[in-house]
Amino acid sequence: MLVECKLKRQGGSQVELGGVTYHFKDDGTGRHVAMVSNSDHLGRLLSITEGYKLADDQAAQPAAPAPAPVAPTVKAPTVAVVLTQGAAVGSTQTQPAADPVAPQGAPDLSEDMDIEELRKLYEEEIGRKPNPNWKAASMIAAIEGARKATS
């Protein structure tokens, strides 16, 4: 799609996204435009409303929406309710669920673990890849939460 840069610089403007350089230059009508075919790049540029917009001849066409970010799902910890001997009828005493139990042969979790090793362990135990921006502590918390939920 043809995107217009609202900032008019002599010689145009060059923008690099994901290794692709877009040169917004005068098209002879006073607009500085560039053809953007990558939908992620298009979504990023159009999200900067003070700097970019669809060129007027395409403004009536809806832009492809940028993909929505996927938030990781972490299960809440469980609490086991246990009736104890001698408890009054209708009353309960609670005990926290047992510490998370690692599957047999699974390594103990530590923030000292190699980040790639943690990513692999997360994928094995959770069933999907972790958010690429997550730090070790986030992956450990998610793995422990999953272990608690299955114990």
Give structural notes.
There is one protein chain. The protein has two domains: 57 residues, no CATH class; 72 residues, no CATH class. Helix content is 24%, strand content 21%. The protein has three helices and seven strands, in the order ββββαβββαα. α2 packs parallel to α3. The chain is elongated. About 11% of the residues have low confidence.
Give the key terms.
151 residues; alpha+beta; 2 domains; 5-stranded antiparallel β-sheet; two-stranded antiparallel sheet; 3 helices; 7 strands; 21% strand; elongated
Describe, in short, the structure shown.
The protein is of the alpha+beta class and 151 residues long. It is 24% helix and 21% strand.
Topology, pairings included?
Layout: E1 2-5, E2 13-17, E3 20-26, E4 32-35, H1 39-47, E5 52-54, E6 79-82, E7 93-96, H2 115-126, H3 136-150
Antiparallel strand pairs: 1-4, 1-5, 2-3, 3-4, 6-7
| Helical percentage | 10-25%
First-last Cα distance: 52 Å
Radius of gyration over all CA atoms, rounded: 26 Å
Q: What strand line-up does the widest sheet have?
A: 2-3-4-1-5
Total domain units? 2
The geometry reads as: elongated
DSSP helix count?
A: 3
The helix/strand series, from N terminus to C terminus, equals EEEEHEEEHH
- The whole-number mean of residue pLDDT values reads 77
Q: Beta-sheet strand percentage?
A: 15-25%
Main sheet specs = 5 strands, antiparallel
Class by alpha and beta content: alpha+beta
Q: Which consecutive residue ranges, at least 5 long each, have pLDDT under 50?
A: 58-63, 91-100
Q: Please give the number of β-strands.
A: 7
